[in-house]
Design goal:
By secondary structure, this protein is mostly helical. 74% of the residues lie in helices and 6% in strands. The protein has six helices and two strands. A two-stranded antiparallel ribbon has the order 1-2.
Length: 171
């Protein structure tokens, strides 16, 4: 690591060799694990939310769209699982816990109790997806993660942005 002092400001230039040293010491690895865990939880939440609303939908086109979106979340989850092993061979990526799943299910049930139209369901899914985009952007803007992890985060964000565009047609 090279250090340049300019008056009272020190600038550190980190080389790829330095990154490998940091990675070996577990500093960069932790950032990657955290990013993968957060995206995994977001994908798990997307899968759960879609699963909770599918039985309320009568429109076959809308149902097919949501099933495709759920499959995209599953694909991201599988990609995360395969990459996660590089950073943490002893554990699995985090998913939403039982309490969060229960709260999501309860929220969906209460908000669709009197109105389970396509518009209402699309609105709820857009709101949840928007939260996933915000979390994904925070991770993506961090940039302290490996390119492979950054690519997964970017795909997650793009997938969710496309999902919102598709859901808007049902508002």
């Amino acid at each position: 690591m090279k250090c340049l002092s300019i008056k009272f400001i020190r600038v550190f230039i980190i080389t790829s060799e330095d990154i490998n040293i940091l990675r070996k010491r577990g500093i960069i690895v932790e950032e990657n694990i955290n990013a993968l865990d957060e995206i995994s939880k977001g994908a798990s939440m997307g899968i759960d939310a879609i699963s909770f609303v599918l039985d309320k939908i009568e429109d076959t086109d809308f149902k097919e769209l949501l099933e495709k979106q759920r499959d995209k979340y599953k694909n991201i989850s599988e990609k995360i699982k395969s990459v996660y092993k590089k950073y943490n061979s002893e554990d699995k990526p985090h998913e939403t816990n039982t309490m969060t799943k229960l709260m999501t299910w309860y929220g969906v049930e209460m908000k669709t109790l009197t109105n389970h139209s396509n518009s209402k369901i699309a609105e709820l899914l857009i709101q949840g997806t928007d939260m996933g985009i915000i979390e994904g952007r925070k991770i993506y803007n961090n940039k302290k993660i490996d390119k492979e992890v950054l690519d997964i985060v970017n795909k997650f964000i793009e997938m969710q942005e496309n999902s919102i565009e598709e859901l808007k047609n049902y508002l």
